[in-house]
Amino acid sequence: MTHQSGRHFLQVPGPSNVPETVLLAMARATVDHRGPEFKILTRTLLERFEEAFGFNDPVVMYPSSGTGAWTAALSNCLSPGDRVLAFETGHFARLWTGIAGALGLDPVLEPGDWRSPASPGRAEEILKEDSGHAIKAVCVIHNETSTATMSDIEALRGALDAAAHPALLLVDCISSLGSVPYDHKGWRVDVSVGCSQKGLMLPPGMGFNVVSQKARDAARAASLPKAYWDWEPVIAANEKGVFPYTPPTNLLYGLEVALELLLAEGLDAVYRRHRRHGEATREAVQAWGLETVCRHADHHSDALTAILMPDGVDADKVRATALKSFNVSLGTGLGQLSKKAFRIGHLGDFNDLMLSGTLSGVEMALELSGVAFQKGGVAAAARYLIDTAEVEESGIK
Ligand SMILES: *Cc1c(COP(=O)(O)O)cnc(C)c1O
């Protein structure tokens, strides 16, 4: 392997950059997960999760990917053949629907254009038509990471309420939690599905469900095999500070520090930071004369930006150039956006100069790849960052 000097820019929208203090915490020796030390860690983690996000419901953690946490949500509270309503916001919505089908559920995917959020209006219509309540769950991706489009979960909850429909609300907050405001409790989400490697600033390997009492009650009567994913043994063991099987010990060391970092910065400040970086990136895209995949100004994601390439340009070639020439990893176009778009992750442990460096790498790669675009995106983003920078009280701006 050849050595590339300087820091690699990992700007895919997950896994995100892991802070050094988190990496160092994970380098500690692994301990007995049934010993006294570990019990204290479990309690601390659950308290810190609550302090940071105010779920007001138990968090069930698994050694798993996000896909595992999707599987957990469905297999706990549903029965074979249950109808599940989902919205085709993009690649991740399709994947979750695919898991539902593979588990023997009956997923109904409301078609979408991969550039738009889930429609609360359509949700309300569909749920009102379902007077027999065949639909048992509504599955939504909060931040559709393939298109950088956010759906309005509060409005979707409103659609369920307006239809007086008893279906469970299952929400994937994998790439939104810790990056943009997410309110499990306020929106009365029944199962929030998350994992470690996005806004939580950890490596991959830990998935989790946040489960409402309504979801736990449904789970008692539901008959899909729960096996490894059963919530109740985890909740019961966690009350004693342990897990029913081996948890990802060293990732949990990292989680303890990652939550501490989020709390120290303050969640409102974390959200403002992501908003600012999202806005700055969109300023750059506009100056480049390029188009974002998301076509709704009110639904842009602040965790990442997905950019469409002009016709005839292979987005993966631009990414390959960015990696080879400037050592920056950008996210590939997923599913039907393959080769048509690339994605810039600006979530997690990130700051203004990391964004400037990333955008500079993108702008240089666009030029090197011969893409027809206008220069000046980096300057436009810098303008925005300067105009919105926090300055010392006594300093001269
Ligand atoms: C990353 C991601 C996933 C998948 O997570 P894996 O850990 O790769 O299984 C699911 N949903 C969303 C919205 C994501 O961003």
Describe this entry's structure for a reader.
It is a single chain. This protein is an alpha/beta fold and about 400 residues long. The protein folds into 2 domains: about 10-15 and about 265-390, Aspartate Aminotransferase, domain 1 (Alpha-Beta Complex); about 20-265, Aspartate Aminotransferase, domain 2, CATH 3.40.640.10. Helix content is about 40%, strand content about 15%. It has 13 helices and 14 strands. It has helices spanning about 20-25, 35-55, 65-75, 90-100, 120-130, 155-160, 215-220, 230-240, 250-265, 265-290, 315-325, 350-370, 375-385, and strands at about 10, 60-65, 85, 105-110, 135-140, 145, 150, 170, 190-195, 205-210, 290, 305-310, 330, 340-345. The strands form 4 sheets. A 7-stranded mixed β-sheet has the order 2-10-9-8-5-3-4, sandwiched between helices. The chain has a 3-stranded antiparallel β-sheet with strand order 11-12-14. The chain has a two-stranded parallel ribbon with strand order 1-13. Helix 5 runs parallel beside helix 6 (about 155-160), helix 10 (about 265-290) packs antiparallel against helix 13 (about 375-385) and helix 11 crosses helix 12 (about 350-370). The longest helix is centred in the C-terminal third of the chain and has 22 residues, at about 265-290. The radius of gyration is 21 Å and the shape is globular. The relative contact order is 0.16. The structure holds pyridoxal-5'-phosphate. Pyridoxal-5'-phosphate binds near residues 14, 92, 172, 175 and 195.
